[in-house]
Amino acid sequence: MITYTLDYNGNVVQSHRVDAGGQLFYTYTYDYTDRMTHLAIDDNPFPPVSEMEMLCGYDAGGLRLRREITDNVEETVEERRYIYDQNDLLIAEYLWDGDSWELSREYVNDANGVVCTIDYDYRDRGSYELGWHLKDHLGSTRVVCKDQAAFLCPGYDYRM
Length: 160
Fold this sequence. Notes:
The chain is mostly beta strands. The protein has strands spanning 2-6, 12-19, 22-30, 36-42, 52-58, 64-71, 76-84, 90-96, 101-110, 113-120, 128-135, 141-146.
């Protein structure tokens, strides 16, 4: 079961998830334009230190430039940088592997948005996976087909 707490702008500021594995508390922080800047994940609603945190950084135009995930001892678990083209379309993600920035994902766009993603495994040079984004009549991605299972595509069902 999941319960949510919203702010006056409709942003989720807290969520509480309970399942067979236990419970988790999520606390979200937003900037003045309602972009998420911080996420803390804990198994205690009032911890002195969060178990895991995510920080996001944006430019003046609202494009997400970085995402950093840290664990409870303040060590960076994952750090990503986002690259955009001259039309502000996301074209690549880079992942810090401890020594250098490695290409993690590329985006192939057309006039309607993302058509395909190419996910790279930086540990296995040359290894990648294609994800074809199939859209409905409104332009929303409904299915992402991976190259290994083109006929077994998971769908995204939007329920009201």
